[in-house]
Write a sequence for this structure.
């Protein structure tokens, strides 16, 4: 084979290799899309079943084998939700608990993280690891003690929203404190030192410097 023949065959070989790569890539993409579509459909099945069940009668809900499509669409089920149950009261209670728990966790986690990251006091690291160790305590362990604390023997908050807000708000601050502390350790101390030279107190430094810089965390 002379040089001219090699030059003529080389582009053909490159074209074939490119075509094979394109075919292989198309097959892989097709299989990937099929798997993603299948996974999306499987993920939607519980939501479709929930909507289907909401439009059934009580007897039809428990029949076996179950019907995916209701025999009779009972749209009045949605109206009975608002007439039978205090739906908006439940929603208001949920929103109150969620917002209150979020605020408590933000305040406690941010201040505790600042103390562990910036303030120098005796036993700081030991106290932090002890605080972090509460993450290993299952919620089932603290369930009964939390209930007893809310009864009339202690705080007398049983039957109020505070019985939900306080255990949830104060019981889940360890992880948030850990995340914020690790982030605050990466903030240069020179920023605080400059603020202290200008006369700012640690509280002002926390609110004006550390807290705004910790928003990404």
């Amino acid at each position: 084979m002379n040089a001219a023949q090699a030059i003529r065959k080389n582009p053909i070989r490159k074209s074939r290799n490119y075509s094979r790569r394109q075919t292989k890539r198309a097959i892989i993409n097709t299989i990937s899309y099929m798997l993603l579509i299948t996974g999306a459909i499987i993920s939607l099945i519980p939501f479709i079943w929930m909507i289907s069940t909401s439009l059934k009668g009580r007897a039809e809900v428990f029949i076996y084998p179950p019907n995916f499509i209701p025999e009779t669409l009972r749209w009045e089920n949605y109206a009975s939700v608002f007439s039978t149950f205090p739906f908006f009261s439940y929603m208001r209670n949920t929103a109150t608990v969620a917002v209150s728990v979020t605020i408590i966790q933000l305040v406690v986690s941010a201040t505790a993280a600042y103390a562990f990251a910036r303030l120098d006091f005796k036993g700081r690291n030991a106290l932090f690891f002890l605080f972090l160790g509460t993450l290993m305590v299952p919620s089932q362990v603290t369930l009964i003690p939390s209930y007893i604390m809310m009864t009339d023997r202690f705080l007398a908050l049983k039957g109020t929203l505070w019985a939900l807000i306080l255990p949830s708000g104060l019981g889940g601050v360890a992880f948030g404190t850990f995340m914020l502390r690790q982030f605050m350790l990466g903030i240069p101390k020179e920023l605080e030192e400059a603020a202290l030279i200008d006369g700012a107190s640690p509280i002002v430094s926390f609110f004006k410097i550390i807290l705004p810089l910790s928003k990404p965390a």
About this structure: The first helix runs from residue 3 to 54. The chain has two domains: 3-81, 86-186. The domain at 86-186 is CATH 1.10.3720.10 (MetI-like fold). The chain has a mean pLDDT of 85.
